[in-house]
Amino acid sequence: MIEFRSVSKTFPDGTHAVNDFSLVLPSRKTTVFVGSSGCGKTTLLRMINRMVEPTGGDVEIDGESVLGKEPVALRRSIGYVMQNSGLMPHFSVIDNVATVLRLTGTSKKKAHERARELLDTVGLDRALADRYPSQLSGGQQQRVGVARGLAADPNILLMDEPFGAVDTIVRADLQQELIRLQHELDKTVVFVTHDIDEAFLLGDQVVILDKGARVVQVGSPSEIIENPADEFVTAFIGAERGRRALSLKQTPNGTVVVDSEGRTQGALVDPTPFSGDVT
Q1: What is the pLDDT of residue 246?
Q2: Which helix (DSSP H) or strand (DSSP E) does residue 176 occupy?
Q3: N- or C-end of the chain: fewer Cβ atoms within 10 A?
Q4: In the structure, what pLDDT confidence band is assigned to residue 109 with cuts at 50, 70 and 90?
Q5: Dist CA 118 CA 121 (whole Å)
């Protein structure tokens, strides 16, 4: 479990990025921070592994303050995946994935064995192991970044807009891959995005933030969609437009669901399974 306790952050230039933020992030669930640029979501994420030090307050992991931990050791114990993958261009794929393991004293042979296993885990062909990042597609690079983040088998995985730099089709594929991985690996994932649809797809707990990391609403996707906290949330999630403003339309072939523009999104079906006798 990760807990923020009255955390604040003011940068040297006077920017108040986070003001008195408190929240519990449950274990083995995906918590998504979502909000517009500059709302403080990435600052919050980086406080967990002390890439950003709080000005006030504390962050605890399983009841222990991260401020009492040695920063480098803390970072090596927490997976971190960023936008544009952050791979080292002069390292091969296998060496990129094995980096944290090598830094913690694992032999090259064992680190490479683990790296190859992780290529399987994230859906990459082992034949890519000896290639360099520049020889991979954007989606492949992001998968390598996820594999590297998982290399030391961390309990916590931080993901800072990891899919923001790839095209829509690749992004959808990576989102589904993350859902699969979470079901299989059962990590505590903290995910940052500005895309509310991505937040609702991936998050068990979604945290909608305004400037200064002010919490506007926290809840499951269903709770937020069904009961927006205020007009800000209603507008932010698009509750009155597009795919979330749905209505029913009768057609000669049955009832369909349409969005606010009248575009058909699906058909209503009888959920009752057939129970009649088969002759």
Answers
A1: 78
A2: helix 168-185
A3: C
A4: very high
A5: 5
Task: Supply the CATH number for residue 17's domain.
Answer: 3.40.50.300
Number of domains in the chain: 2
Alpha helices in 66-167 (DSSP H): 71-76, 93-103, 108-121, 138-150
Residues 8 and 146 in one domain: yes
Does residue 274 have a pLDDT over 70? no
204 shares a domain with 120 = yes
**């274990």: which residue's tokens?**
27
Q: Tell me: do 258 and 163 sit in the same domain.
A: no
pLDDT digits (tens, 9 = 90+) for 12-61: 999 999 999 999 999 999 999 999 989 999 999 999 999 999 999 999 99
Domain that holds residue 258: 241-271
Cα-trace Rg, the chain = 21
- pLDDT tens digits, 114-134: 999 999 999 999 999 999 999
Same domain, 46 and 66: yes
Same domain, 192 and 266: no
Strands 30-34 and 188-193: parallel
115: Cα within 13 Å, side-chain hemisphere? 26
CA distance linking residue 275 with residue 233, whole number of Å: 43
Q: Does residue 278 lie within any of the structural domains? A: no
Is a pLDDT exceeding 70 seen at residue 271? no
Is the same domain home to 152 and 267? Answer: no
**Contacts with 30 (C-beta within 8 Å, 6 or more apart), sequence order:** 182, 189, 190, 191, 202, 203, 204, 205
